[in-house]
Amino acid sequence: MFSFLFDIDDTVYDQLSPFAQAFEKHFDHHASLPLKDLYLYSRKFSDEVFERSESGEMGRREMHIYRITKAFQVFDVQITPEEALGFQYDYETFQKNIRLLPDVIQALDYCKTHRLPLGVITNGPRDHQHNKVKQLGLERWILPEHVFVSNEIGIAKPDKRIFLHAQYTMNLEPETTYYVGDSYANDVIGAKQAGWKAIWINRRGIAPLSADVRPDYVAEEQCSIAEIVSGICEQGQEKREGHIIQRGI
To answer: How many CB atoms sit inside 10 A of residue 101's CB?
Structure first.
């Protein structure tokens, strides 16, 4: 039986959307900046200090100031800590309106119809990530005990132990378990190190980080996650019937 576990941020919803709304409210005088690149740099700098934030060495608000301030500095723009926090406040506010992407809903519906195990593995603060699960309505498909948050467990992606924790909790078979996520470093490499398959959500057209660790499937901007998920399952059925179909990665 196939199993599918999902990341949350920029995987099951478009994280750029609330970022863009907050940017427009606070920094419309910098409208000439490449918004997607600014967003990607903020993610990069967030990942850079993630472990310090998780351990408490860096306060959460300090991390919020750091990541957006450093992102602006890439474009030779200086913003104050007060501007950074104002942006962050509205970024979080707009995140309360996030919605699942249509193809993600189709993928979850397909899995539920076929009684395939579903779960979530996400990095971040416990309450913040659980609130996103509720806001997105993921409890319609995924049992609460199958939502694994790094801050709650004490292990974060890409550490393979968080994947193995989910595997043991859900009684999964690694060779038929797929992890769906947007971060090459955290999601693809982490899942593959745990012996899982990986579906890389690459809507932003980011270059792979490693030539040695490759995802099994890549969902680019126009690709449907639902089609990939159903294709995997149908291919598996055909293999059991003795007909193997090769699918490109």
So the answer is: 19
Reference 186, options 52, 56, 8; nearest CA is 8
pLDDT of res. 214: 93
CATH number belonging to domain 3-13+98-240? 3.40.50.1000
| In the predicted structure, residue 77 carries a pLDDT above the cut 70 | yes
Residue 246 confidence (pLDDT) above 60: no
For 6-31, the pLDDT digits (tens) are 999 999 999 999 999 999 999 999 99
Question: Which CATH code of 1.10.150, 3.10.620, 3.30.360, 3.40.50 fits the domain covering 16-95?
Answer: 1.10.150
What tokens were used for 25?
């409210």
Sheet holding 217-220, edge to edge: 147-149, 118-122, 3-6, 177-181, 197-202, 217-220
Confidence of residue 236 (pLDDT cuts 50, 70, 90): low
Q: Residue 127 corresponds to which tokens in the numbers above?
A: 């309450």
CA nearest 177: which of 185, 187, 167?
167
The number of angstroms, rounded, from the C-alpha of 117 to the middle of its chain's C-alpha atoms is 18
- Torsional class of 56: left (φ above 0), alpha (ψ -120 to 50), beta (otherwise): left
Q: Are 176 and 3 in contact (CB under 8 A)?
A: yes
Cα(19)–Cα(234) distance, integer angstroms: 37
